[in-house]
Every structure is written in structure tokens, then in C-alpha cells.
Design a protein that fits this description.
With about 260 residues, the protein is α+β, with helices and mostly antiparallel strands. It is built from eight helices and 13 strands.
Length: about 260
Amino acid sequence: MYPASDHAKNVINGVISVIGLKPNFEIREANVPNAAAVILDNKRYILYNGEFMDQISLASGTYWGGISILAHEIGHHLNGHTLDEGGSRPATELESDEFSGFVLCKMGATLKEAQAAISIAASQKGSHTHPGRQQRLNAIANGWNNAKGQNGVATKTSVSRNNVEKPVLIRRQTQDQTAAEKYIAFDVHFAADSNGIYYITNKGNLVNVDEESMYLIGSLSESNKRGYRLMLTDKNYNYLYIAEGGNIENGSGKKVGMIKPHED
């Protein structure tokens, strides 16, 4: 086993945060075929193959593909499936698929995004351990629709989807604008908020200046998607990608903004 990447840790924290529980497991990268929930030496682990996770996100065309795989494995632990010595069974796989759909809806994924990984990775006919593709897609849809139907969830999800183009604001202590000027590295413009004032600082923080307050709304980091070197991430794990020429694009490749070096 190897230490998990920061991105994998962030995904796990995102899944756990939307259900309000503390994780009862650790996450590790390992030489496994894809991903697995296991108990080793009386400790619970989520193990994942980093190359497989990259491939599933690339093949499904969305970063939600990898997130759904990890959410599925978390479902095994939280539902107590790993305490059963019988191993994988269709019924427990469907329970974890439903959990995955529920969580991804809470995190802001569309139903199509929540189903993306299973749509390409699941066997059409199934086996003695795993259900067929359509059963699994139906289970994900059940979980997703249950989350959508909860009081307040529909509104929360809608806000999260809108925030893909304008990340969620987190209040930060007000700073003197003149003093802060020297810390600005890039100007950022979002189509969804054309009048907003956004900067990326020299520490890689994405901030919004509104009247006399400054808000930390995300960060600049190495991209998790092939074809992009950098990306912007907010606290809800929405991702925007920096393309050549400074275009900011969403996961579908649609331009949603622009970044350019700051001029004093």
C-alpha cells in the first residue's frame, strides 16, 4: 500500500462531509485491479488503483466517474458489508450503488454523471458477485432520486451546479486593497458573474473582492484531467480547468471564464 494522493483524500472528505459522518477507515493507493473496501489487521481501508481511477475518469468523460467508484467503496464500509465474510454479492453491490447515487447527488452531480462510471465499467449480464449493468444503473438512479427528493436537497444541488461556474464563497478577513495588490498574480473573469472581481493570489488562492470584503472561494492546483495542466477547485469539489490561452473551461470543455496575468 502507498499513501493516497491529496486528490483522493479530498474526494473521500467530500463524500463523508455530505452525509455528516466521521470516516471509520483509511484510504491508500495499492496494487489492486480497481478499488476495494477491505479490512486488514482489524483496520478498515479503501484501496484504489491510481491508474485505473485516471482511466475511468478519462473513459467516462467526467471526473465524477472516479468519485462514484470511491463513493461505492465507502458504501460497503458504512453498510457493514466488509464485516461479512461472504465477499461481494449482488445485493450488497446494489446497496453500495444506491449509496453512491445518493452521495453524488448531494455533491452536485447530475444523474448522468453519477452513472457514468458504471455505464462503461459494469458487465451487461453481471455475475454471481455483481449485478448486471442496468440493475446497477437503476440502483444509482434510486439513490440519486432519493437525495433529490429530500427536503432542501433539490435547492442545495441546484446551487452546487450553478457554482461550477462561480465557486462557493467562504468569508475571509478583510484586507487593505492597496496592501493586497502586491499579492495578486492573475485577474480572473467568470461569464456567470461578469461584474465580479476575482483574482488568483501568488499563493494560488482564488479570491473574490466584494465591496470592502475579500472572500476565499477556491484554489489553483495541478489538474486531475488529461489535457489541462492546472485547475481551480472549490470546497464543494467542483473543478474548472485552465486551457491554453487562459480560457477557463468546465468538465465538458465549455468556456466559462478567462484568466490573465495581473497588471498593476
